[in-house]
Every structure is written in C-alpha cells, then in structure tokens.
Design brief:
Structural class of chain B: mainly beta
Number of helices of chain A: 0
Distance between the termini of chain A: 36 Å
Distance between the termini of chain B: 39 Å
Strand content of chain B: over 45%
Number of strands of chain B: 11
Shape of chain B: globular
Helix content of chain A: under 10%
Strand content of chain A: over 45%
Radius of gyration of chain B: 13 Å
Structural class of chain A: mainly beta
Oligomer: heterodimer
Chain lengths: 115, 113
C-alpha cells in the first residue's frame, strides 16, 4: 500500500531555530506539493514541483522558507529562522497525473509548534 | 482567487441519515475533487468529477456537478459514525492544467451514533 511519508510527525522548537521537514512521495508520482493548514487560513499551497523542478512557490514566504527536491524520493521544506506564526500542520502530497487532472495523495503531516 | 466554498460550514446528523454538502467555485475547471480529513490526519481523496460529467457515484457517495451554476454537491447516504470528518472540495485551474488544486475551507460533519 503506497503512501506518502513525512518526518518528523511532530516538532516543537524555539523561535529563531531552523526547521527541516521531509517528505517521501509515492514512487512513480511526478508531482509534489507542500501545504500548510491552520484554523484561520485553512489549507494553503506553499510550493509544488513537477519532475523535481519547482513550478510555483508563490504561496511561500521567500525570506524564510525554502523548498527543494534533491532527488525523486525526497522533498524538503525548510524554515529559517522560524517564528511563532509558522506554527501549523504542514502537509506534503504527491500527485498522480491523469488526462483530467491530478489526484493528490497526502502524507500524515508534520505538526509544528514554534515557541 | 479561484476557490471552492463549502456550505454548510458544519453539519450534525444522526447515524443513518443522509448528509449533503455543497461547493461553489468561481472560474472554469477541468475537474472538481472531494477530499475527506479525519481529525489529526492528512486529506484522503474521495472522488473526482470531470467538467463534462454531471453525476458520479462511489459506494455511498454521490457527487453532482453543475458547471452552469459553478457548483457541486457531495451526498453521503446512510451515514455512519465513521463518516465524521471534514470534507473539502478542490478545484483545478481549468485550461492551464497545472495540477494545482485550490481547496475550500471545508464542511465539518458530525455523525452521532
């Protein structure tokens, strides 16, 4: 049963520290998405990649966030320096392209708390 | 921005009853999708309906799409306590077919045993 995996599942850190979240997409999927979910804003798209190339990161605060795909089996989202307002659940999803669009498969999320 | 808006925001029903959730969007689409999120979990894809389809079924789920009204509905028949979750509609970007989805704020469904 193929699944998207994310690590860590929970992270508590202090303001100013670097946070790195990792995602392993489903093998064979060529699209990877990073989302952030909060009660106030709902589910926001931060960045996404197709065939490891970044296609859109307009939803991401550029000064502190960065997203990369070093290889087809790993996507990373980094926050440096972290701030309390970054506290949220961060989801990675990988996409299965079809003629009529993508179906996205979500990981379990990384719950981040910045103190 | 193009976004699915769900209605109602919250719904509470008794087990065995039907649950209907609605979604409206703003611009043309290739497809509309529904996802479920259980508390503390990631979203799970339920169903995709293409822009040239009007109705689709999957088990106890029935989805309709009215492109003239830019709206969709998700019907869960004979609900169960396990259906308690948040339900999101998501729309793509129509002609660009980038794969990006815009999610609505979701409908929180509570099914009481």
């Amino acid at each position: 049963d193929a699944r998207v995996t994310q690590t860590p599942r929970h992270k508590v850190t202090e303001m100013g520290q670097e946070v790195t979240m990792r995602c392993q997409p489903i093998l064979g999927h060529n699209t990877v998405f990073w989302y952030r979910q909060t009660m106030m804003q709902g589910l926001e798209l931060l960045a996404y990649f197709r065939n490891r190339a970044p296609l859109d990161d307009s939803g991401m605060p550029k000064d502190r966030f960065s997203a990369e795909m070093p290889d087809a089996t790993l996507a990373t989202l980094k926050i440096q320096p972290s701030e309390p307002r970054d506290s949220a659940v961060y989801f990675c999803a990988s996409g299965d392209s079809g003629a009529w669009g993508e179906t996205q498969y979500f990981g379990p999320g990384t719950r981040l708390l910045v103190l | 921005s193009q976004q699915g808006e769900e209605d109602p925001q919250a719904l509470s029903i008794q087990e065995g009853e039907n649950a209907t959730m609605n979604c409206s969007y703003k611009t043309s689409i290739n497809n509309l999708q529904w996802y479920r999120q259980n508390s503390g979990r990631g979203l799970v894809h339920l169903i995709l309906i293409r822009s040239n389809e009007r109705e689709k079924h999957s088990g106890r789920l029935r989805v309709t799409l009215d492109t003239s009204k830019k709206s969709s509905s998700l019907l869960i028949t004979a609900s169960r306590a396990a259906d308690t979750a948040s339900y999101f509609c998501a729309t793509d970007y129509g002609s660009s077919n980038t794969g990006k989805l815009i999610f609505g704020q979701g409908t929180t469904l509570q099914v009481k045993p």
